[in-house]
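The record is kept unedited without comment:

——
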Amino acid sequence: MQLSFLGAAREVTGSCFLVEAAGIRFLVDCGMAQGGREAPARNREPFKFDPASIDFVLLTHAHIDHSGLLPKLTRAGFKGPIYATAATVDLLGVMLPDSAHIQESDAKRDAKRSRGKNPMPPLYTLQDARECLKQARGVDYDREFAPRVGVRCRFRDAGHILGSSIIEVWVTEYGRATKLV
């Protein structure tokens, strides 16, 4: 089993963890870096993995630093389900389109400033956010589910924001189940 910290390591923003085991690849969170001058450039960097190779995403909660790059991920080729609590899915329906609106507004402002010369496109659009939301799947708290053969998960209430969760994950590899929390 391999665990890669792709965000929120040595910082509190841009949460994204890649788990690879038993021929399965999944993310826990896919968040936007926020704060600091380098955050916009970091959010525009290509993913450190092929989004099309990810089987599913487990989302801890709807804050943008945990969910804000999901539309970019889906636009880049991720086709799998995004699992979260039902309340988190509901919040994503407001937060991701709002984030896309901000991205589009910033791009328009940049185009005016640059007078149309090499304007920065939006990180993602409202349409990207809407398409991403089609992949979201709500799961009840304390209900075990299997996103793929060899992986079992359960969302536990984290008490952080509405819908937030601690995710229990068991991966079976070589006949042995390993619990990740």
